[in-house]
Amino acid sequence: MRGVPVVSTTIPGSLLDADGAAELLNVPASWVLAEARADRIPHVRLGRYVRFDADDLREWAQERRRGPNVTPRARRGSP
Fold first, then answer.
1. Which of 1, 25, 21, 26 is nearest to 10 (CA)?
2. What value, to the nearest 5°, has the Cα angle with vertex 52 and ends 37 and 77?
3. CB under 8 Å to 19, separation ≥6 — which residues?
4. Model confidence pLDDT, tens digit, residues 11-33
5. What H or E segment, with its residue span, contains residue 52?
6. Could you say which of 2, 15, 22, 45 is the most buried, measured as most Cβ atoms within 10 Å of its Cβ?
7. 3-class state of residue 4 by DSSP
8. Backbone angles phi, psi at 49, to 5 degrees
9. Residue 29 · residue 19 · CB < 8 Å
10. CA of 48: how far to CAs of 7, 24, 45, 75, in Å?
């Protein structure tokens, strides 16, 4: 992995590769790619390349929080 945090060095709206997305989510890059392949994680296909939007990943992870201290968040498009 890289020695420099990927998220802090990216400009808003930029796309992350699998290594950057994995670092953001604290999971292996192989897991990120497998989830994208199965269409279970937000991603963008650019030909043979797969990229990830950091804001989309943060929102996706937030929606999956579970436990007694988690308050439900309004989904996109909800009033």
1. 21
2. 95
3. 1, 2, 6, 29
4. 566 899 999 999 999 999 999 99
5. strand 49-53
6. 22
7. coil
8. -95, 145
9. yes
10. 23, 22, 7, 31
pTM of the model: 0.70
CATH fold for domain 6-62: Arc Repressor Mutant, subunit A (1.10.10)
**The residue count for the chain:** 79
Q: One-letter amino acid identity for 18?
A: A
First to last CA, the chain: 41
User: What was the pLDDT predicted at 24?
Assistant: 95
Q: Residue type at 41?
A: I
Q: How far apart are CA 45 and CA 63, in angstroms?
A: 23
